[in-house]
């Protein structure tokens, strides 16, 4: 007979699945992770309900024509916990995340809107700190907060502060950044080390220590993109690999372009602290979020000059070539390992680290 008592029996009712099944009658955390579940939610719920040609672009920002001008328009919501973390805060994220979405279409951000959703009971001092960080980030990025809104929800129905931002900017003539322009032979460049933001958030959220403090890479990338476009406006596509990490961005581009992507695994710039933390936590750095990096698909004839310009910029000093687009295995991303093998880099189902932005 078992010697278990009532208190020895595991209660699994409160457990959550890190990789939820796709057939979900209810929303699960994975639907917000930027992976397959997020894509299915957009494809089967939102896109059919909204319609419209502009939405069908499904980029980081929509490229629009209005009164003869080419505009980029984007919106994002930020629910990160904790509100303050090494290297930034929810206020920094709210600005830099939206500025970067606009920059990925080649636009320089001009104006932002900002909506605060506050939980009843949050300290006014906390709200002030977030607002000050947001204002400072906007000034640093050269963008103006032009309009806003505030709502308050009952205690227990939020995590202190949520923020929604929307942004608009102008797209320069001759710039056409979209995954459909990717062709075999394009060189894949990443602007620096990956996985830093997600691990920084995890370390403070869970009280983990990795021997060295890991700071978020949160930054506005508009000036880096301008430096790249100054070399040539003929960049094919840019993405900032936030939720779902580098793997999600590369899979989205491969799928939309109908090309394959081959990476050189040893070329991936993973800091030693991030690699160690990921090994400890059982994570793959390619799936961990970034908030101050971009990945670019560049025509081979321009790759060296673009890489040189990126490395001359403070936000691109550690830029490197990590792979290329190929005609083989269209829609699939693979990595050549250090042992000479090849592994498939799948689209993530949900998110390894929820609530990272």
UniProtKB/TrEMBL annotation:
SUPFAM superfamilies: PurM C-terminal domain-like, PurM N-terminal domain-like. Coiled coil: none annotated. Gene3D superfamilies: PurM-like C-terminal domain, PurM-like, N-terminal domain. Residues 184-329 form the PurM-like C-terminal domain. GO terms for biological process: protein maturation. Pfam families: AIRS, AIRS_C. Residues 60-171 form the PurM-like N-terminal domain. Belongs to the HypE family. PANTHER family: CARBAMOYL DEHYDRATASE HYPE (PTHR30303:SF0), HYDROGENASE ISOENZYMES FORMATION PROTEIN HYPE (PTHR30303). NCBIfam families: hypE (TIGR02124). This is Hydrogenase expression/formation protein HypE. It comes from Streptomyces mangrovisoli.
């Amino acid at each position: 007979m078992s010697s278990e008592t009532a208190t020895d029996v595991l209660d699994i009712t409160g457990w959550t699945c890190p990789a939820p099944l796709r057939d979900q009658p209810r929303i699960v955390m994975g639907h917000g992770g930027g992976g397959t579940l997020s894509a299915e939610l957009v494809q089967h719920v939102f896109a059919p309900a909204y319609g419209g040609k502009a939405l069908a672009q499904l980029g980081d920002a929509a490229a629009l024509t209005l009164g003869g001008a080419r505009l980029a328009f984007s919106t994002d919501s930020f629910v990160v916990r904790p509100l303050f973390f090494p290297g930034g805060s929810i206020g920094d994220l709210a600005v830099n995340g939206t500025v970067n979405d606009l920059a990925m279409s080649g636009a320089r951000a001009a104006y932002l809107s900002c909506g605060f959703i506050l939980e009843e009971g949050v300290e006014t001092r906390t709200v002030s700190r977030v607002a000050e960080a947001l204002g400072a980030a906007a000034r640093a990025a050269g963008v103006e907060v032009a309009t806003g809104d505030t709502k308050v929800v009952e205690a227990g129905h939020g995590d202190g502060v949520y923020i929604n931002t929307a942004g608009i900017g102008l797209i320069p003539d001759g710039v056409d950044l979209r995954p459909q322009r990717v062709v075999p032979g394009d060189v894949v460049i990443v602007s620096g080390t990956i996985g830093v933001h997600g691990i920084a958030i995890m370390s403070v959220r869970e009280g983990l220590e990795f021997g060295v403090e890991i700071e978020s890479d949160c930054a506005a990338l508009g000036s880096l993109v301008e430096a790249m476009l100054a070399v040539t406006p003929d960049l094919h596509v840019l993405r900032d690999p936030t939720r779902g990490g580098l793997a999600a961005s590369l899979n989205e581009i491969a799928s939309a372009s109908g090309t394959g992507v081959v990476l050189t695994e040893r070329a991936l710039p993973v800091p030693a602290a991030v690699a160690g933390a990921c090994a400890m936590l059982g994570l793959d750095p390619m799936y961990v979020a970034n908030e101050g990096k971009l990945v670019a698909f560049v025509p081979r004839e321009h790759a060296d000059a673009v890489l040189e310009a990126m490395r001359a910029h403070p936000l691109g000093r550690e830029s490197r070539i990590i792979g290329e687009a190929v005609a083989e295995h269209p829609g699939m991303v693979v990595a050549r390992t250090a042992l000479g093998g090849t592994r498939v880099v799948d689209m993530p189902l949900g998110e390894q680290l929820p609530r990272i932005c």
